[in-house]
């Protein structure tokens, strides 16, 4: 159960009293999640999600509030945080930072169909269109600058072949991304896996869990999506899902020449990013709570498939 900080109804009622959101009817702890405590809260007026932040850089939470406010104002399907009667969104509850969100409709798609893939691509393209003008700034915490020092921490736990694979890949990325032209920048979701989306049938109900949100290469965000949404269990890309997402995305935001050139390498780098981050959780920095870490092998398989088979051809930009 991913409720690390239990709450009483009295505590939640006191928080709700600051908002124009109705009176508490019921509350339920949410089992999903690996980092924060989440409750579904029902009032006599609406359905809400209450999140308590258990770890991380709490001074960065205003960035996430500002980003979600910005995307919500631009009619993106995100849970814009509730602000109290004084205009304040971020509060403390049980001595933890706390935010209230509207509960968005839908559930996670385990095997997304092509209509859902098109909806995701279209929404991500719209998001990247407007996010280029977001004035907040938070450096990407998992880009090349992170890979360079952090991969050394896991090498001792790897086979000689995997050590060589990881070192060679990081060196390659440094040559490509360290000296190449700057790619288009903007605000990113940073972790847009299927379980961070909600679908009500084929309708995209929301993009959620922006706590890896940052600013950086828009292509980084897109590569994370393709590596999760369009990948088969053996690591190879599914052409139908790949093209459905990318055609819808490109209709909203065409890629630059530099982005098209660096796309295969970005797919590889984001695959290694998750292989490494999961290895770190298993061997170096296990979670503070008794939760099963994600399997690093999944993204090692994806990386090897990208190396063996390369990237699929990108669809042409819609013009």
Present the secondary structure layout:
Elements: H1 9-16, E1 24-29, E2 37-43, E3 47-52, H2 61-73, E4 91-93, E5 96-102, H3 114-131, H4 144-150, H5 160-177, E6 185-188, E7 197-200, E8 203-207, E9 214-217, H6 218-229, H7 239-252, H8 257-284, H9 297-309
Antiparallel strand pairs: 1-2, 2-3, 3-5, 4-5, 6-9, 7-8
Can you describe this structure?
The protein is α+β, with helices and mostly antiparallel strands and 319 residues long. The chain folds into 2 domains: 9-102, 2-Layer Sandwich (Phosphorylase Kinase, domain 1); 114-309, Aminoglycoside 3'-phosphotransferase, Chain: A, domain 2. Helix content is 41%, strand content 14%. It contains 9 helices and 9 strands. The strands form 3 sheets. It has a 5-stranded antiparallel sheet, covered by helices on one side. Helix 3 packs parallel to helix 7 and helix 8 runs antiparallel to helix 9. It is globular and about 55 Å long. Belongs to the pseudomonas-type ThrB family. It comes from Halomonas korlensis. Keywords: Amino-acid biosynthesis, ATP-binding, Kinase, Nucleotide-binding, Threonine biosynthesis, Transferase. Pfam families: APH. GO terms for molecular function: ATP binding; homoserine kinase activity.
């Amino acid at each position: 159960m991913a409720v690390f900080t239990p709450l009483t109804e009295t505590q939640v009622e006191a928080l709700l009293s600051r908002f124009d959101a109705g009176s508490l009817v019921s509350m339920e702890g949410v089992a999903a999640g690996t980092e924060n405590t989440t409750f579904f809260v029902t009032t006599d007026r609406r359905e809400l999600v209450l999140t308590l932040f258990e770890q991380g850089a709490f001074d960065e939470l205003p960035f996430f509030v500002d980003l979600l406010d910005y995307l919500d104002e631009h009619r993106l399907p995100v849970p814009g945080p509730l602000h109290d009667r004084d205009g304040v969104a971020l509060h403390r509850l049980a001595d933890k930072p706390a935010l209230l969100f509207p509960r968005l409709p839908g559930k996670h798609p385990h095997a997304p169909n092509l209509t859902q893939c098109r909806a995701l691509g279209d929404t991500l393209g719209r998001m990247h269109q407007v996010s280029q003008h977001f004035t907040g700034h938070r450096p990407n915490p998992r880009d090349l600058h992170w890979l360079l020092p952090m991969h050394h921490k896991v090498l001792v736990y790897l086979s000689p072949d995997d050590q060589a694979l990881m070192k060679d890949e990081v060196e390659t990325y440094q040559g490509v991304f360290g000296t190449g032209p700057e790619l288009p920048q903007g605000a990113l979701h940073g972790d847009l896996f299927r379980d961070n989306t909600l679908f009500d049938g084929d309708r995209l109900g929301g993009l959620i869990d922006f706590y890896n949100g940052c600013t950086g290469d828009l292509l980084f965000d897109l590569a994370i999506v393709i590596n999760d949404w369009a990948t088969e269990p053996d690591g190879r890309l599914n052409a139908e899902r790949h093209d459905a997402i990318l055609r819808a995305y490109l209709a909203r935001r065409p890629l630059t020449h530099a982005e098209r050139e660096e796309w295969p390498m970005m797919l590889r780098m984001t695959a290694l990013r998750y292989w490494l981050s999961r290895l770190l959780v298993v061997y170096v920095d296990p979670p503070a709570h008794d939760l099963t870490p994600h399997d690093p092998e999944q993204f090692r398989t994806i990386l090897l498939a990208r190396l063996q088979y390369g990237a699929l051809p990108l669809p042409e930009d819609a013009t």
